[in-house]
Amino acid sequence: MESLLEVGQIVNSYGIKGFLKVVPLVDNNNQFKEFKRLYVQEKNTYKELKIEEIKFSKNLVLIKAEGIDTIEIATKFKNLYLFAKREDIKLEKGAHFIVDLIGLEVYTEEGKLLGKLKEVLQPGANDVYVVKNEKNEQILIPVIPDVIKNIDIEIPKNKLVVMTGVSGSGKSSLAFDTIYAEGQRRYVESLSAYARQFLGNSTKPDVDVIEGLSPSISIDQKTTNKNPRSTVGTVTEIYDYLRLLFARVGVPYCPNHHIPITSQSIEEMTNRVLSLEENTKVMILSPIVKGEKGTFKDLFEKLRKEGYIRVKVDNEIKDLSEDIELEKNKKHNIEVIIDRLIIKEGIRSRLYSSLETSANLAKGKVIIDVIGGEPIVLSEDYACPYCNYSLEELEPRIFSFNAPYGACPDCKGLGVKYKIDVDLVIPDKNKSILEGAIKPINLDEESSIMYTELDTVAKHYNIDLNKKIKDLTKEELDIILYGTKEPLTFNYKSKNGNTRKTTSYYEGIITNLERRYIETKSTWIREWIEGYMTELTCPTCKGSRLKESVLNVLINNKNIYEVTCMSIDELKTFISNLKLTKEQEEISSSVVKEISSRLNFLNNVGLGYLSLSREAGTLSGGESQRIRLATQIGSRLTGVLYVLDEPSIGLHQRDNQKLINSLLEMRDLGNSLIVVEHDTDTMLQADYLIDIGPGAGEHGGTVVAAGTPKEVMDNPNSLTGKYLKGIERIEVPTKRRKGNKKYLEIKGAKENNLKNINVKIPLGTMTLITGVSGSGKSTLINEILYKALAQNIYGSKDKPGKYKEIKGLDNVDKVVQISQAPIGRTPRSNPATYTGVFDDIRDIFSETKEAKIRGYDKGRFSFNVKGGRCEACWGDGVKKIEMHFLPDVYVPCEVCNGTRYNSETLEIKYKDKNIYDVLNLRVDEAMEFFENHPKVLNKLKVLDDVGLSYVRLGQSAPTLSGGEAARVKLAKELQKKPTGKTVFILDEPTTGLHQDDIKKLLVILEKIVDNGDTVIIIEHNLDVIKVADYIIDLGPEGGNKGGTVVTTGTPEEVVNNPNSYTGKYLKQVL
């Protein structure tokens, strides 16, 4: 049956009536409406199926066929392919059957012959053409849906390939959703069935065949580990090697006597004694009692029976034949004299035997009393011979803070504990207690228990409750917060006049909260008390996360925690200058080599300023991505396809070359790299550059230009090429704003690596905070300035970093932080709900004639509340199926087919579209659709202004990139009226943006400043830095070598400062 073509695959049965659930393999599902009969292949024959009914469900087709009327029969057809007769398939005008093309020559748009079309697997819809050229090399031409249109693309292997294009043009769809997904899937499928069950199923991307594909590893930004136990050291595996190093060559020290603790065998002890000068007189003593009270009569009796003759009691030699009287209440030291020897030849066996006897008697300890010299204390165990301080045998696991063997018993290896914070209990120290200074208590009613107790305490200790908190002495405040040491008599009086008298201790406000936090069974109370708690460094381990005993193991006078606190730069120097004995060197050489090479890789990707003890959750997307990149370089794999998503985020121009060199090194090992990137330097040094565009969303998805960077620059259609060539560029403003003469002044900033700096930010300007990675920009702005403003304006509980004072807080009445954090973590959150435009759209639907007839209000059109939503999936559109030992599986809800709404709600239409259709519109389509509704249009216009015209209104929040999430937040804020006293704080807003999008973003930011508001941006992108009104450059380096102000002023002034790295690179673009 030559004329049969594949049109779908049966993936399952559906419902009790025996529908077949089919994945269509044709480019238009409506084709199925035309089919009256289909065929399935059983062994070598084709069986005809007569179609009775066809339903459509999102991306699936449900088919009811004659003779298949139960779920049992339908299940037998699972995984079979469906075929249709060639004449039954209606072709669109200009379309063709792929099978007819095999053997034809394939040319590029420029007329270059690629080769002959060799084969197409699974003839049908989403195909990859396999073309062979003259050299018999295979070229793949994928046909990919979604954003990527039917594009022909040739990607060379073992090269650094950069994909670029405006935001939303489909770079990530091609790089991650197609090429990476297929490489990953093939690799997973090569594993055993047992291994695969733990990895979950990866669905095949919409591509039929990709040949020459290597196992692929994706290094993206979305997977920063928020686990507090995860640190830079554990993520990079360097900590594992450090644990091994400390276990093998670390020397335990006694914390009391500060001497190394070693264990010696009897053989080693013998050699040690024989190494004394000849004719030295020695006594071998067995220390059986050290610093204990008692008369020890039984002990002496036992020694007599065992045949010992003399003992040394409190440094006096006594004969056991005498009656030895000791004071009962005094501490004594008793050593048994085992032997007396003169060092000379021939005493080895006698000495060995004596040492063995002594060690057996005194639990491994021996004292060699050298007559006329210092005594030598030896021990067979890992214990201090003086105070018996002992350590278990050194092994890697005792250095792990994630295992009970090494973790601090108090904080369980977290390094922090939740404690009631006085600053949160008393936020305003200018108020008195009666004015409500202590937040958790209510003193409005004099009959309340708390009022009675405080009043009694105040009278007893003469504390004035009307005095400001800051004027109370420490002792007075401690009594109120932590309670009394003596019982007091309290006279309680209730509202109805009843009185009772009790005598007890006053508990104290903080003590009371701490007790209730532990005892309460109410979640509400616990959460309320948590509002007054902060993470404080664990008092037991001082933040080191480890047991005290582990911290007494040193290498070159440093313990493992001190080593992890060094920056990677400092640690490199420390490791390369280790002073070890010859034996230690041999033991540790391979471990030291591993640690050094990994530190080098981290340094080469520009992370020399990080310390290994830094929590992984505090890293930026770019930093965590570069750590994974360094880890991959460290693994030295070859023949792998790496797919990277903007690795240059958060990297200063100075360190950019280091990163590019690392990428080139990975390529030279024999790997292929596909990098989605907008950075000019990376694009210019790529072996191959692919520009996808020309626009975003539906206007993108085609290859505008591909080739060497020079070829792309010479292509007149390529927007990227125009920017690289300098035809298009972001202009430098002719004049810089001076601001409104008001300032925000931060004095004495000391958090993290900031060195007590003073910074003045002019209001009414666009101020840029620049500096190399790790110089303290985020600490200054996000940790100190933003949190201080939020605390002052909104009463936020987040404590700002350390600073002396901030002047000019009165000049700000609103602060907006636009970060890259997701706008929501669930599929319920989307751009429409976040920006508030969905409210207005629901209003429009509730105003339609049909909705009014049915009495539907706007709540009916919400998928979050009962009424309009589909109750089967609670408005999620998907159902979560929890799997044992496997990731949860999400399947489209079979009741609403993923639309989230019930059928009655979907019957209400506005301009022929129901509420689900509207959520599926892109922003640019919605602007056209709602052109007559100014309220909706204005909100959509702002989304369009920030460059999100390609995003769908109902796109779920977790699928938005960090840059997109930041722009959605910006759009939400831009709808509000400018106050002229607002501060906008943006942290690297150019993430994920093409130069053309940056141009659009700058127009918006300029508009904000022109309204009188202030914009503060942390940024490395020179195109943004050059348009600043004022620059504050921090540095000069990262980590401990940073944290000072290098220079401030306009871009022109910064350029003239020879110490500023930013100035050096800025010069090239001004």
Structural description of this entry:
By secondary structure, this protein is α+β, with helices and mostly antiparallel strands. Helices cover 30% and strands 21% of the residues. The protein contains 35 helices and 39 strands. The strands form ten sheets. Strands 1-2-5-4-3-6 form a six-stranded antiparallel barrel. Helix 6 runs antiparallel to helix 17 and helix 29 packs antiparallel against helix 30.
Structure in a nutshell:
By secondary structure, the chain is an alpha+beta fold. 30% of the residues lie in helices and 21% in strands.
The number of helical elements comes to: 35
- Looking at how many chains there are and whether they match, the oligomeric state comes to single chain
Q: Return the structural class.
A: alpha+beta
Quick one: how many beta strands? 39
Helix content: 25-40%
**Major beta sheet summary:** 6 strands, antiparallel, barrel
Averaged pLDDT: 83
Biggest sheet: strand arrangement: 1-2-5-4-3-6
How much β-strand is present in the residues? 15-25%
Uncertain residue segments: 121-127, 143-149
What separation lies between the terminal Cα atoms?
Answer: 70 Å
Tell me, what's the shape? globular
Give me the Rg, rounded.
Answer: 38 Å
